[in-house]
Known about the structure:
The chain is an alpha+beta fold and about 450 residues long. Helix content is about 50%, strand content about 10%. Strands 1-2-8-5-3 form a five-stranded mixed β-sheet. A three-stranded antiparallel β-sheet has the order 4-12-9. A two-stranded antiparallel sheet has the order 6-7. It binds protoporphyrin IX containing FE.
Amino acid sequence: TDRVELPHPANRLPVIGDVLGAPSDRLVQSAMDDARALGPIFTRKFFDTEVVFVSGADLVAELADEDRFAKHVGNSLVTIRGLTGDGLFTAFNDEPNWAKAHDILLPAFAMSSMRTYHPTMLAVARKLINSWDGHTGQSTVDVSGDMTKLTLDTIGLAGFGYDFGSFESEDTHPFVTALVRGLAFAQAKNRHVPGLDFLYRKGNEQFAADVAFLNGVVDEVIKERIASGDTSTDDLLGLMLNAPHPKSGETLDEVNIRNQVVTFLIAGHETTSGTLSFALHFLTKNPAVLARAQAEVDALWGDVEDPDPSFEDIGKLRYVRQILNETLRLWPTAAIFARQALRDTEIGGKYPVAKGEAMLVLTPMLHRDPVWGDNVESFDPERFSPERERERPVHAFKPFGTGERACIGRQFALHEATLLLGLLIHRFRFLDQDNYQLKVKETLTLKPEGLHLGLARRTSAD
Ligand code: HEM
C-alpha cells in the first residue's frame, strides 16, 4: 500500500517545515495543540526530518504490540547517551548490556524490595515534612523544588547509600545543577543547525565539564562502597557490584555501572517529583477530592501527631493511589516515548510503517482520547476505581511506557509518592494564596512552573 498522506500543521514552511510551531520549551504542549487540531496521528517536519506523533488509543495499542514494534532510541535519547551511555534507559535494544543489567537489577524493583526501601523513603519524607513545618503560617514553599530534593535524596540513599543532604542546604546540589544543565544541552543539541559548530563551542565545553563532574561524583560513590568491604546486594549498587547475572554468572563492567548510576539518578527523580507537584496542584484545586483523601489517611492514622506508616499501610491508600494515577493521566511527566517497527507493517489498517521507521507516542493526548469519556480535562480520580479500570482498553494508560522497555522504577515511584502524599495531606492544609494557574514547564520531563503553596497544620476541625 502507498503511504496515506498524514495531516500536518497548516502553516508548514519550505525548508524549515514546522519548526516555528514547535518552540523548544513547548515541544510537548505544542504537539498536544497539533493533536487537538489534527487528530490521533499527524506529522511534523523539522528541516529534513519528518516525525510522526500518535495519540489515538487504538493506534497506540498497535504500537504496543511487541511482535511488531519495539522501543526506538531516537535522536533525543542518543544525545542523552552523552551522559548515560548504555545505561538501561538509553541502551539500544540489541546492546548486550541492556539485557544483562535488566536481569541483574530486576530483583531490586520487585515488590519485596520496596519493603527494604520503605524506611529510607520514610526518613526522607520526614525531612521534607520537617522543613515544611518550619513554613506553616510563615512563607510559602516552592513545591517542585522541594519535591526534587525529596526524590533525589530518596534515590541516592535507597539506590546507592549516598546522601545528597538536599534539605540541609538552601542551594541546589551541584550534582543537580550539572545534571539539569547537561540534560538541557543534550536536548538542545538536536536543534543545533548543522555546520555552525563554532556557535556551540562554549556549550560543548560546559557539557564535557558537567559530564566529568557527574562521573567523578559517581566514581567516588562506587569507590567508597568497594572500600567499605560491604558485599550485600540489597540496593542497586550492591546488586551491580556483587550480584552475578542469574544465567551467565557475569557482573556488570565498571563503565556500565557508572552509566546505570547516572541513569537512575536522572530517571529516578525528576519524573516522580513532577508527579508529586502536579498532584498537590490538583488537590488544592479540587477540595472534594482532597477531603476524600483526608478521610482515607485519617482512617489509617487518626489524630496521631507523627504517624509511623508501615509498609502495608501504603497498599491501603487506594484513593491516594487513584489521585496519583489521575495526575499521571493528565500530566504524564515523561510525556513521549518512541516505538519503531520490527518489520514492514501498517497500523489502523491504513497507515503503512516501514521496518525501522519510528513513531512517537504522545502520552498526554493518548490520556485524553475519547475512551476516557467526554470530560477528559477534568481531574477525577474515580476514573481509576477498580470497576472503571476494568472497562477501559488496556493500552489507554501508558505513563510508564510499554513492553519490556517500560519503566523499571514504577513500583518504586508509586510507593515513594503514595507515602509522601499520604503524610502531607494528613498533616497540612494547603493554601493556594496566589490562586495559582497551571503553567507546565518542559525539560526532559514536565513539572508545574512556579507552584508555591502556603501551609497550615490541620486541626481536628479540618
Ligand atoms: C523508563 C516514566 C520513575 C527508572 C521509563 C519510561 C517511562 C518512564 C515512560 C519508558 C521510556 C521509553 O520508552 O523510552 C516514569 C515516570 C516515573 C518514573 C512517569 C515517575 C512517576 C522512575 C523511577 C526509576 C525509573 C523512580 C528508578 C528508580 C527507569 C529506567 C527506565 C525507565 C531505568 C529504562 C528502563 C529500560 O529501558 O530498561 N520511565 N518513570 N523511573 N525508568 Fe521510569
